[in-house]
């Protein structure tokens, strides 16, 4: 599928609306039949929350697309062929990604991540690994950071490497890696960004970005990582995305190996040679991106180590902050003596719940019975669905679930 | 059980006989009802093989015991209370060990082994680990070598540490570790040796000795080890003895970490903290030395990695060379026109086999029927048993197994 220019503009306006993150975006376009419908519903949704939900104007969205085009970039939507299929399968995949460079995002890829203040040995091993993986036909994905990331990109330049940025396409961080970006683009690689043009990356944008690094890759190799470092966030995302996790061991006396040694103890595959990655990923790549998760491999399942992963704070990624929780949830009930102007959403909700029961009922009928506009009914039903209160039976037919 | 002085002398004479190793020793005393009976059978066994089997004289054995006593040592037999129970359970446990120092061999122990040319980081981590394990109440066992071994002993001196030597008690290797031996003995530790007083250790004695290091221990921690190094032999013995194996990770660029990283990939427990050893061994020690093997722990079973272990050459240990294979096996059949003097053992064997069948028959009756002396009959039956040709039914009753 390919978006029309108009659709792409709507998608961009919706995802650039404050409070709309990838999850909310998906729910909204499903419920309102597309971005256009969701944009129309914005004022209602905002009024119900007592806040202003203002999507950027068409002109602002067109400006972003034009600025990106001047850098040689374009926006790719989740449903489009060029969008990385592995990323598409992840929770909270960005609806649009800004891409510069070659259309290589559906080549089999592996992420290499690690410390910014890497050791000499860590850098040397990164180089060996990145070169070897590139020579074996894998695309090396990393985060353009100092240290391990930069070395991974450099060593895999000839094979075409993918950098995922935390800021906008025009806000390279660190700034002196502009040279590296040029080299990546010049040698058939690609640069991805989720955030808008002009977006200067803040601290929380880096962990948020990490889900894309793991998300476009069949596996993530952590080369050096202190405890609670950003690379472990990438590893946690990889696990949640049901991807392979590899870690390079190091001396117990080196704090940069604490994170990787921990990962190995939890079940990550120990990597001391290129072949250790290829042996695991080869069969998985052969099965293709749509195949089921790999079967158990007679070692601890990283997914079943909640105590370990709970220590690695995904909240830092702040992904949910982009999905305003109020946006899709009912406000607090107000006291009964409060003025009934502006229109009282809690009343709407109570009235609709009262009209619902275990027998399926049509949305239109519900709206008529309640004397409430269809858009408000749809919004309340969306809230109720998110709360797990109703079941949908297709064709706008719903029923109340017993609590 | 406690040996009498006479029995201990017989045991010593038998195990010090050329061609008698721990396995042959055990078979012989079982078949001949004790070391005295086996010593009596030696001339017969030798004659049948056309070689001289000469146990040392009583006087020679007494000299060894006296020389050991002058060093403050004594011989302990497998059946005696002071003999390490964990070692007793192993295949090819030495029938006698020479012990100097405190009777601490039945305290819970853990082996720490590694490279002689250890890295500074490896030595520092050894120190941390050995001290921590000692403080946790475990006895640290090692091989008195330069590098990791020496550091492990030194750091665990206050807790009482056990050194296992490859040569005799008076042949400390390396010689300048005599000071370390004195320290070990002075601080409540112990020094073990399988080989006789005066035995200068040769290359093959070190891997042979390694089975004792792993054998007295609940688990073996390999700290730094190159591929195919002696420490991996200790690890392989530990696996075959159904003991825990731990390994300390290191940089893939450090050859001294290749062996340990390999071990971790094969299922050894990665150790970067003292607690990683204690967490595994604690419950096993609690169950005690007689308990069954640990249940599967959701990681690869080291015992099921034949390809890996096949690369680690136990033949270097040359354990079987001490068990002369000819000693307990029949000679090649001779051509029928060969002279019948000396007495023809192949004939004896053929006659006895012909007299045996699936019905159990007594040994005495068999000897009478064959017209062969009871001692020769017993020897032939031993050979047939080792070949899996006969079944024993107790009280000297045997039957032929169908092929």
Folded structure, characterized:
Two copies of one chain form a homodimer. In chain A, helix 9 crosses helix 10 and helix 14 crosses helix 15 (363-370). Chain A is globular and about 70 Å long. In chain A, strand 4 (139-142), helix 7 (148-155) and strand 5 (162-165) form a beta-alpha-beta unit. Chain A has 403 residues and is of the alpha/beta class. Residues 330-344 of chain A have low confidence and may be disordered. In chain A, 42% of the residues lie in helices and 12% in strands. In chain A, the strands form two sheets. In chain A, strands 1-2-6-5-4-3-7-8-9 form a nine-stranded mixed beta sheet, with helices on both faces. In chain A, strands 10-12-11 form a three-stranded antiparallel beta sheet. At the A-B interface, helix 6, helix 11 and strand 9 of A face helix 6, helix 11 and strand 9 of B.
Mean pLDDT of chain A: 87
Number of helical regions of chain A? 16
Would you identify the regions of chain A where 5 or more consecutive residues have pLDDT less than 50?
A: 330-344
User: How would you write the strand order of the largest sheet of chain A?
Assistant: 1-2-6-5-4-3-7-8-9
Q: Largest sheet of chain A, if any?
A: 9 strands, mixed
Helix fraction bin of chain A: 40-55%
Largest interface, per-chain counts? A-B, 28 and 28 residues
Q: Radius of gyration of chain A from the CA trace?
A: 23 Å
Inertia-based shape of chain A: globular
Overall number of strands of chain A: 12
SSE arrangement of chain A, N to C: HHHHEHEEHEHEHEHEHEHEHHHEHHEE
Strand percentage of chain A lies at 5-15%
Assembly state of the chains shown: homodimer
Structural class of chain A: alpha/beta
Amino-to-carboxy terminus distance of chain A: 40 Å
């Amino acid at each position: 599928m390919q978006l029309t220019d108009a659709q792409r503009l709507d998608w961009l306006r919706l995802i650039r609306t404050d409070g709309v993150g990838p999850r909310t975006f998906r729910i909204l376009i499903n419920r309102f039949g597309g971005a256009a419908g969701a944009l129309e519903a914005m004022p209602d949704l905002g009024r119900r929350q007592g806040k202003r939900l203002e999507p950027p104007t068409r002109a602002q969205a067109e400006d972003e697309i034009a600025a990106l085009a001047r850098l040689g970039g374009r926006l790719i939507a989740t449903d489009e062929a060029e969008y990385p299929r592995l990323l598409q399968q992840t929770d909270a995949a960005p609806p649009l990604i800004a891409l510069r460079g070659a259309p290589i995002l559906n080549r089999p890829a592996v992420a290499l991540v690690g410390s910014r203040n890497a050791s000499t040995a860590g850098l040397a091993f990164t180089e060996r690994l990145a070169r070897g993986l590139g020579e074996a036909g894998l695309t090396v994905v990393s985060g353009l950071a100092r240290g391990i990331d930069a070395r991974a990109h450099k060593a895999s330049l000839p094979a075409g490497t993918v950098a995922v940025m935390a800021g906008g396409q025009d806000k390279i961080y660190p700034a002196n890696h502009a040279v590296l970006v040029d080299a990546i683009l010049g040698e058939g690689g690609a640069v991805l960004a989720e955030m808008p043009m002009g977006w200067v990356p803040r601290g929380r944008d880096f962990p948020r970005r990490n889900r894309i690094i793991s998300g476009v890759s069949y596996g993530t190799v952590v080369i050096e990582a202190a405890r609670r470092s950003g690379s472990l966030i990438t590893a946690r995302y990889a696990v949640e995305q049901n991807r392979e996790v590899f870690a390079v061991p190091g001396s117990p006396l080196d704090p940069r190996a604490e994170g990787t040694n921990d990962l190995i103890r939890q079940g990550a595959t120990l990597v001391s040679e290129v072949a250790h990655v290829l042996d695991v990923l080869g069969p998985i790549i052969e099965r293709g991106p749509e195949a089921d998760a790999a079967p158990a491999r007679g070692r601890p399942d990283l997914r079943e180590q909640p105590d370990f992963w709970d220590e690695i704070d995904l909240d830092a990624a702040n992904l949910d902050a982009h999905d305003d929780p109020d946006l899709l949830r009912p406000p607090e009930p107000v006291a009964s003596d409060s003025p009934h102007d502006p229109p009282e959403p809690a009343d709407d909700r109570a009235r609709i719940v009262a009209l619902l029961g275990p027998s399926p009922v049509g949305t239109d009928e519900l709206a008529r019975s309640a004397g409430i506009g269809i858009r408000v009914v749809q919004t309340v039903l969306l809230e109720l669905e998110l709360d797990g209160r109703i079941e949908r039976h297709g064709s706008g037919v719903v029923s109340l679930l017993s609590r």
